[in-house]
Design goal:
This protein is mainly α. The protein has one domain (3-186, 200-386): MFS general substrate transporter like domains (Growth Hormone, Chain: A, Up-down Bundle), CATH 1.20.1250. The chain has 14 helices and no strands. α5 packs antiparallel against α13 (337-366).
Length: 403
């Protein structure tokens, strides 16, 4: 086994472990505080700092990764998630809104340090000429991460019912602590450290490709979260009458399937020219939430329309997400890769922040149909922005790693 593959496995293992706790924590907070009587908007507000500090972290984290090395930023992310989980293991009387928001802020910082480090690290492990291999490795990392995030959603629902909120976060903190200790010894020390010391002003991208792709990513992920983060779980519980176990299980299954589609996205898109694929796949995705909204407004069976539409949305969104994740790593520069990737995922976090706020507010004021129409408009915007991407060489999924 080559050094590159060993490091890829360590990075992927860290990302997997973190993702399990991140998905479980998201479901724990949504369901626990809904159970306590919080409104959809109030629940959404609990995640504002999580998403806001994700924006800040990605912007600054790329700079830190280039200066310090990606091993340090990845391990720092793991440690901060442990602290965030520990903060939520306090007695119930201390779980005030400001306290939970502060814990979510730390978790948001941790998540995006971890993601930025993992995605940037892969760029350095694959020769630039092997774009098909890069696409496959990024797709596997991204897809497996989201599959495990789905498992985390299910885990969150199970742990809430079996161990309670406090017991669940304590168990996750201990497990992640063991992963963190292992990572301190296994991850290569100088991974991603830039040879030329970047200036702080370098955190803002000067590349047209990075800027356009980042803007498209912001609208793409805003379109997902505007109905997925708060509106959908609350809708399934209140309109369909599902208990927390069923809500968590269904959303977990959706994300697991979504992650699987991401891993095989290179086979679906084939020999893809980046710009054309980004435009067409986003345009196709925009039709799905609009169709779901029309079905609900026409009075068709909500179970058939929402669940069937959600499955179609998951397939197309997975392809879009995987394609975007490949393109950012492909367009990014080699030396100081974390700067470009960090800027891009800053836009990703901004989209999630926008979607999260809208998910609670719009659902509470106008219902799920309004969330879906906004989702369609945001995806259409992402498709139009992608028209401004520069041409990129064709992707050949069959490229092999030369060792």
């Amino acid at each position: 086994m080559t050094t590159a593959i060993r490091q890829y496995l360590v990075i992927t293992g860290n990302y997997w472990a973190f993702t399990l706790t991140d998905g479980a924590l998201r479901m724990l907070v949504v369901l626990h505080f809904h159970q306590l009587g919080y409104s959809p908007l109030a629940i959404a507000l609990l995640f504002i700092f999580y998403e806001f500090f994700g924006v800040v972290t990605n912007l600054v984290g790329g700079y830190l990764g280039a200066r310090m090395g990606l091993n340090r930023t990845m391990n720092l992310g793991l440690f901060l998630q442990i602290v965030a989980l520990a903060m939520l293991a306090v007695p119930a009387a201390m779980l005030t809104v400001p306290w939970v928001m502060a814990a979510q802020a730390l978790s948001g910082i941790a998540k995006d340090l971890n993601k930025m480090s993992a995605k940037s690290g892969i760029k350095l492990l694959v020769p630039d000429a092997q774009q098909g291999t890069l696409y496959k490795w990024v797709a596997i990392l991204t897809g497996s991460k989201n599959t495990l995030k789905g498992v985390g959603f299910f885990l969150g629902g199970v742990l809430l019912m079996a161990a309670g909120f406090k017991g669940a976060v304590m168990l996750m903190a201990v497990a992640l602590g063991l992963v963190w200790l292992a990572s301190l010894f296994l991850l290569k020390q100088e991974l991603g450290k830039s040879k030329a010391k970047p200036k702080f002003t370098d955190i803002l991208s000067k590349s047209r490709a990075i800027n356009v792709l980042s803007a498209a990513r912001m609208f793409l992920f805003g379109a997902r979260d505007v109905w997925f983060v708060v509106a959908l779980p609350v809708y399934l519980h209140t309109v369909f009458g599902w208990d927390f176990w069923k809500v968590g299980g269904f959303m977990a299954t959706w994300i697991i399937g979504y992650g699987f589609i991401q891993t095989i996205a290179p086979r679906i898109t084939g020999h893809a020219e980046g710009k054309r694929s980004a435009v067409l796949w986003a345009a196709a995705l925009a039709l799905i939430p609009a169709a779901i909204a029309i079905g609900l407004m026409a009075g068709w069976s909500p179970q058939v329309v929402v669940i069937g539409g959600l499955l179609l949305f998951g397939v197309l969104f997975a392809v879009n997400s995987s394609l975007h994740s490949y393109l950012i790593v492909s367009y990014a520069r080699g030396d100081g890769v974390s700067l470009d990737v960090g800027f891009y995922y800053m836009s990703n976090a901004a989209g999630r922040l926008l979607g999260t706020i809208l998910s609670g507010w719009v659902y509470q004021a106008w219902g799920l149909e309004a969330c879906l129409w906004i989702s369609a408009a945001l995806v259409a915007t992402a498709s139009l922005l992608s028209l401004r991407l520069p041409a990129r060489q064709s992707v050949h999924p069959g490229d092999a790693v030369k060792t």
